[in-house]
Write a structure and sequence with these properties.
Layout lengths: L9 H4 L8 E4 L1 H6 L11 E4 L1 H9 L6 H16 L5 H6 L1 E2 L21 E4 L17 H15 L5 E4 L3 H9 L3 E3 L17 E3 L4 H5 L3 E6 L2 E6 L12 E4 L4 E9 L2 E6 L18 H10 L6 E6 L5 H15 L5 E6 L15 H5 L4 H11 L6 H5 L3 H7 E3 L13 E6 L6 H8 L7 E6 L15 H8 L6 E6 L6 H9 L1
Parallel strand pairs: 1-2, 1-5, 2-4, 5-6, 7-10, 13-17, 13-18, 14-15, 14-16, 16-17
Antiparallel strand pairs: 3-4, 8-9, 9-12, 10-11, 11-12
Helix pairs in contact: 9-10, 10-12, 15-16
């Protein structure tokens, strides 16, 4: 279904075909999610002929959209295998799903299966004369209006990722919806933050079912109670009144295992010469420096220290602790303004203009004079060439990274599929850090709730070897803080 919010109740679903909706799919929905035809549960789908024409025109190339079009064509070909014209006219049964591209369809009873209809006849044009042009969008609008007149007993819905098309549909009296099935969350406020504040009376309520001990210089607590069920692995807990800060290290039938965090805000605990400046930065460094946490996501506005913290932790673990062989930095190449065109040179030279954040933060780290500053000053051009590699995301397919510390910058511009392809490149001993600001998405058809970064934050929150922190406070300068508030 396009929207979980518009799902039918079980009582209505039992009424069968009489309440089935007819969804007219725009081309961009199929190009966005090839498996969308399997996601409408018991409802029917209608594909106008102009949509098939647009799919045929977009099948060539190596872009993700072209690959998705070819996958849609394969799905349709499988459904039409050994099927005659009479069966096509009656509608092809859609295998029930929750199926991803390439997965086997799950068979369901015929009564609960929707049907896929193709435009096999020329429908009368009912568009007003004031709608100019002979465009594909207008053909889709005309087909949807004709279906409304032909099937007045049914609810015909146009599904499109094109906002302007949905606006024109609303003007013409057509009910149009966005495609919601790719949303990781219905509301961004529900996104896991990685930090939880404990109520003031928490310790009074749990003092009788709590035990504590020390092991190898770390303090641990085991707590039981109903509130523990809502916690997640590697989530951070804090209490303002008692200055308590801890990390959830495990959850089982015996309760939650907590470990007090290390305070990187003090001068005794610096990471490559820098200190955390606030609580969230301290939590982030605890995650980045944990050997058993393989996947870390950092969200935050510009100036919150995402790249600086990730790079400092990577340098400390690569050069001081020899935990990783090298640092690999990559990001999607989406320009902020007009594209400047072709860039000459090798892969690393082409990526250099996109890595300004890396160079800015390296300048801060190499000029550090605190503890570890000697190491920072030793990070010269040889260090950049030998231990920090800049790689293009376009050439990641098929690679496996062993014992690497990988930083994925600007991850908010990646789709869930792109991030999946990237994360699955990690081999044994590799740690991956994805950083981004979901309020700065520059990619068409991606929103804050459909971004790949939002997707992985939500999907990884219960895995014991991953962690997430949302950084809240900017630490660049008073000028940057004031500008972010008033501009």
């Amino acid at each position: 279904m396009p929207s979980r919010r518009s799902a039918d109740t079980p009582a209505r679903m039992q009424q069968g075909a009489a309440v089935r909706r007819l969804y007219v799919l725009d081309t961009n929905v199929l190009m966005h999610d090839p498996s969308c035809i399997f996601r409408f549960q018991e409802h029917d789908i209608y594909l106008p002929m102009v949509v098939l024409e647009e799919l045929d025109a977009g099948k060539k190339g190596v872009s993700e959209a072209a690959r998705n079009v070819r996958q849609v064509s394969r799905f349709l070909d499988e459904m039409m295998h050994a099927v005659g014209k009479p069966q096509i006219d009656r509608g092809l049964p859609i295998p029930g799903l929750h199926r991803d591209a390439g997965a086997a369809a799950v068979s369901e009873p015929a009564a609960t299966m929707g049907r896929l209809f193709f435009q096999t006849e020329l429908l009368p044009t009912v568009l007003p004369e004031t709608l100019p042009g002979n465009t594909a969008d207008n053909h889709i609008l005309g087909t949807t209006l004709a279906l409304q007149h032909k099937h007045p007993e049914r609810r015909v819905i146009l599904v499109s990722k094109d906002i302007n098309l949905r606006i024109k549909a609303a003007v013409l009296g057509i009910h149009a919806e966005d495609y919601y099935n790719d949303k990781a969350l219905d509301d961004l406020d529900l996104l896991f933050s990685g930090v939880r504040e404990l109520p003031q009376n928490f310790w009074d309520e749990h003092s009788t079912n709590m035990e504590s001990w020390q092991q190898e210089g770390h303090t641990f607590y085991r707590i039981q109670g109903p509130q523990v069920r809502a916690w997640h692995p590697n989530e951070f807990l804090y209490g303002e009144a008692d200055n308590f800060e801890a990390m959830v290290r495990g959850l089982d039938q015996r309760g939650a295992l907590l470990e007090l965090t290390r305070d990187y805000r003090g001068v005794r605990h610096t990471v490559w010469g820098i200190n955390a400046r606030n609580r969230e930065q301290n939590f982030a460094l605890n995650l980045l420096l944990k050997p058993d946490v393989d996947f870390v996501t950092l969200l935050g506005a510009a100036g919150t220290g995402k790249t600086l913290l990730a790079l400092a932790a990577g340098l400390a673990q690569t050069l001081e602790q020899n935990r990783y062989r090298e640092i690999i930095m990559t990001r999607v190449t989406v320009p902020l303004g007009e594209d400047i065109g072709f860039l000459p040179g090798t892969e690393e030279e082409k990526m250099t203009p996109w890595m300004g954040a890396l160079m800015d933060n390296l300048e801060v780290l190499t000029q550090s004079n605190g503890e570890g500053g000697e190491w920072g000053r030793a990070a010269t051009g040889d260090l950049l060439r030998n231990r920090i590699k800049i790689r293009s995301m376009n050439f990641m397919r098929g690679r496996t990274f062993l014992n690497r510390y990988i930083i994925v910058d600007e991850a908010q511009n990646l789709t869930p599929k792109q991030l999946k392809a990237l994360v699955t490149r990690a081999g044994p001993g590799t740690k991956m850090v994805c950083i981004g600001n979901i309020s700065q998405i520059d990619t068409p058809y991606l929103t804050e709730t459909t971004s790949g970064l939002t997707f992985v934050v939500d999907r990884f929150k219960d895995w014991p070897h991953s962690g997430h922190i949302t950084l809240l406070r900017g630490e660049r300068s008073r000028l940057a803080d004031y500008a972010s508030e008033i501009l």
